[in-house]
């Protein structure tokens, strides 16, 4: 039928509304017989459509091997770019067509042609999780080109939780602590810089573990990755970061507080708060108040923004932002934060858990007022007023003497199980 309409004068390079020619259509169906008929009739080999997409790009995108070989055999340009700078190799890498990537490379496809945004085929393969294609492209990709791109393939793998890709990249020499280009980093409110932070911010725990096992630092980002992990509400990720040396008392750079910021980020997530306290988070600072038992000055709602368990900031999406300015001229106290309308409904259980990690303390008038506001919280108030047992005080003293690093490896110490349970606050 194609031959028939051509013999009756059909224009072989006629375009449809999207700019496709008949050759585009034949390639998309992997029909090499029709491709041959069209080419013999004078069809252009590299006709770009509206978006500069050639038939060869279509074949690479859709994994049409026979059509691709036919076009290359007829002289199609394997390095022709679309209006966005995308090549056939980009498309094959993005869509996971390993055999086509391998063929294009043997036909001198350039793995170092960037898109208009500076991304190479290796970036595409890493982002979409095609680790076998990543292995093919690493050896033919210029390290210089990678250094001049705005983001590394490792960052993209971390962002999209491609832990297998991350492992391949690291094994082939990627720098686990490479930081994002400043021009790209400033696009994020928290100024994130490392692949580890990207992994944590996108709940990519598997990739975070791969990065940490390869030596990723927890101290290179302006905002601690631990703060982001706490914000996400994932106990296992928080434990992982603490095991690798993250500072449990890390602060939010844009908000001054007299108590650890991780406590504010926990909100009503008591298991996560317990994990942090068990790992040495400073609970005593929560009960240090400049006003003590005296009256507190009247103030508006705390400017410290609180985050729910789903990871969303309840008052603003820029809790960890570095470009927000604190509107107060002093550090916010725990009693002020816990008294806000958002937090006060969880005050009792939070204070109760904090009391398990401190010795003798005295509640300030604001915390006392909070506990008096609900009848079910009165046992918590009585607990704060009662003398702490010698057993509890000894435990706290021993934990302090041991230090945080030893506490992290408590279960591996040559101690009886009962002592380990005692020191880990399990009993």
TrEMBL record:
SUPFAM superfamilies recorded: Ankyrin repeat, SOCS box-like
SMART domains in alphabetical order: ANK, SOCS_box
Keyword Repeat applies: yes
A single GO BP: intracellular signal transduction
CDD domains to which the protein is assigned, alphabetical: SOCS_ASB_like (cd03716)
Annotated signal sequence range: none
Keywords, in A-Z order: ANK repeat, Repeat
The SOCS box domain, residue ranges: 379-427
Record-linked PANTHER family: ANKYRIN REPEAT AND SOCS BOX PROTEIN 2, MYOTROPHIN
Protein name listed in UniProt: Putative ankyrin repeat and SOCS box protein 2-like
Taxonomic source organism: Scophthalmus maximus
């Amino acid at each position: 039928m194609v031959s028939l309409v051509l013999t009756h004068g059909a224009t072989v390079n006629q375009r449809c509304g999207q700019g496709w020619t008949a050759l585009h259509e034949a390639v998309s169906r992997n029909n090499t017989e029709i491709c041959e008929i069209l080419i013999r009739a004078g069809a252009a080999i590299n006709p770009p459509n509206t978006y500069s997409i050639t038939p060869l790009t279509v074949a690479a995108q859709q994994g049409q091997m026979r059509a691709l070989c036919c076009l290359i055999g007829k002289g199609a340009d394997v390095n022709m770019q679309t209006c966005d700078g995308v090549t056939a190799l980009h498309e094959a890498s993005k869509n996971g067509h390993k055999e086509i990537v391998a063929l294009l490379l043997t036909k001198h496809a350039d793995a170092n042609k960037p898109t208009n945004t500076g991304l190479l085929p290796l970036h595409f393969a890493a982002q979409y999780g095609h680790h076998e294609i990543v292995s093919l492209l690493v050896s033919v990709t210029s390290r210089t080109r990678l250094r001049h791109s705005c983001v590394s393939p490792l960052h993209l793998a971390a962002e999209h939780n491609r832990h297998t890709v991350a492992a391949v990249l690291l094994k082939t020499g990627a720098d686990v602590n490479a930081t994002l280009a400043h021009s790209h980093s400033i696009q994020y409110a928290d100024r994130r810089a490392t692949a580890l932070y990207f992994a944590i911010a996108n709940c990519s725990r598997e990739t975070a573990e791969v990065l940490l096992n390869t030596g990723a630092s927890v101290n290179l980002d302006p905002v601690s990755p631990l703060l982001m992990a706490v914000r996400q509400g994932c106990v296992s990720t928080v434990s992982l970061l603490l095991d690798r040396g993250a500072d449990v008392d890390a602060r939010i750079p844009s908000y001054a507080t007299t108590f650890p910021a991780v406590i504010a980020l926990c909100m009503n997530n008591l298991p996560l708060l317990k994990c942090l306290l068990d790992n040495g988070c400073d609970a005593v600072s929560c009960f240090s108040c400049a006003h003590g038992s005296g009256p507190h000055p009247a103030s508006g709602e705390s400017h410290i923004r609180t985050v729910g368990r789903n990871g969303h900031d309840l008052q603003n999406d820029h809790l960890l932002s570095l470009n927000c300015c604190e509107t107060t001229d002093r550090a916010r106290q725990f009693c002020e934060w816990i008294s806000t309308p958002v937090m006060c409904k969880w005050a009792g259980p939070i204070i109760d858990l904090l009391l398990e990690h401190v010795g003798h303390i005295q509640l300030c008038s604001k915390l006392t007022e909070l506990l008096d506001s609900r009848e079910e919280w009165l046992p918590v108030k009585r607990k704060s007023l009662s003398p702490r047992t010698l057993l509890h005080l000894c435990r706290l003293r021993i934990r302090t003497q041991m230090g945080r690093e030893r506490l992290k490896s408590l279960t591996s110490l040559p101690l009886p199980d009962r002592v380990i349970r005692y020191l880990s606050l399990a009993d």
